[in-house]
Amino acid sequence: MTNPIINSSPDWELSIWTSIAFFAAYAVYLSVYRLWYSPIAHLPGPKLAALTQYYEFYHDTIRGSQYILSIEEMHKKYGPVVRINPWEVHVSDSDFHSELYTGSACHRHKWLLWEKHLGAPHSGLMSLGHDHHQMRRAPMDQFLSSKSVWDLQVIIENKANALLDRLRHEAKNPPAQPINVMYPLSAYTIDVINEIAFARNDHLIERSDFGAATTDSLLKATQVGSIAVHKNGAMASFNALPEAVLGRWVPGKSSASV
């Protein structure tokens, strides 16, 4: 016998209820797996963190990069090893250092979600496999050698001297408002990076405000970074937008010089 209620329901209504039932069943299955059958289910930590990544998303994005402080509180409550989300474990133990940083003796592989964070899957930084990363890194080895690093010392020292000269000048001629030390240090960092990596000099150290707009723009850009960590493909979506839209609506895209 057919069910008259189902027969009388429009196809779209049946599809909606079927979808709801499917997602509800999947949510129950996922919850049971993460809480009791995951390979890291036995590790201590907040159940909400083990259940969903949105616990981390709340502290990282809504509260503004506060999850690291929450992890510190977890260690005080649960011990040196805690589960911080459905997939990851955080260790606060100095003895674990030798296990984590083994050098070339042990090959490490990044996980798939890492590749999607910055929207640059073909870059060396986002390479998942150890051997693949080594292959992509090889062309840069000459720039990372001890000799190359020592050759950069001149640039670093010149910028440091320029910053010291500028600060001495400000000390002799105090401005109307106190200087936020973040801006001089940021100007120094950006000038060094730009000259070493891009062979250009924006002279932020020499500007009256130490290029405050550039630093502020970069700080705003970090807001996008916290979203990208939790929303796979977010950076790829941002990069696909027209420049005019990026400059107006995406934090940090309008005036960042790096």
From TrEMBL:
The chain crosses the membrane at residues 16-37. Keywords: Heme, Iron, Membrane, Metal-binding, Monooxygenase, Oxidoreductase, Transmembrane, Transmembrane helix. GO terms for molecular function: heme binding; iron ion binding; monooxygenase activity; oxidoreductase activity, acting on paired donors, with incorporation or reduction of molecular oxygen. The keyword Signal does not apply. Pfam families: p450 (PF00067). Its cofactor is heme. Gene3D superfamilies: Cytochrome P450. The keyword Transmembrane helix applies. Belongs to the cytochrome P450 family. This is Cytochrome P450.
